[in-house]
Amino acid sequence: MTAACDDFLVRLPKTYHPKIETLPLAVRPQTGYDANQAKLFKKTEADLVLKKIQPEDAIIALHPTGKFYSTPEFSECLSEWQLHYKNIIFLIGGPDGLCDTLLNRANYKLSLSSFTFPHTLAKVILIEQLYRAYTLQKNHPYHR
Question: What pLDDT is stored for residue 143 in this prediction?
Fold first, then answer.
């Protein structure tokens, strides 16, 4: 998965290059855990994220209830967000999803699909879509 992300990231110019930061997941037990434990894991992860974001940052949370965009619509939204926000931060939840604190802080919610993906695959899909959005903005033939 890392190679796929890197492949698209090297294609983006430095001026457009997203900063990718993966925060450590809360350590989960090898065997199952209950819903209350899942909430604690999500809160621990949310606390790490909240330390990294600023009030003026645009937060886009990937979530099943988020809005579906076509690629051209996503490219247009990304252009708008770039005009209005200094930093655009996409949040991809861990195995238990995102904490309500982060979902409430999000400026926008985005859904990649009605399918559920592991967070590593969602990251690859998101980075490819960022590259595709960039190529649309620049009239590059990648998006045909």
Answer: 67
Domain of 8: which CATH number? Answer: 3.40.1280.10
- Please provide the average confidence, as pLDDT, over all residues in the chain: 91
Between the alpha carbon of residue 32 and those of residues 94, 100, 124, the distances in Å are: 15, 22, 27
Q: How far is residue 78's CA from residue 134's CA, in Å, rounded to a whole number?
A: 9
Segment 69-98, tens digit of pLDDT: 999 999 999 999 989 998 899 999 989 999
Question: Residues 112-119: contacts with CB within 8 Å, 24+ apart?
Answer: 112/62, 114/64, 116/64, 119/92, 119/93, 119/94, 119/95
The answer to whether residue 53 sits within a structural domain is yes
- % pLDDT > 70, the chain: 97
CA atoms of 124 and 129, how far apart (whole Å): 9
How far is Cα 46 from Cα 62, in angstroms, rounded to an integer? Answer: 14
Q: How many domains does the chain have?
A: 1
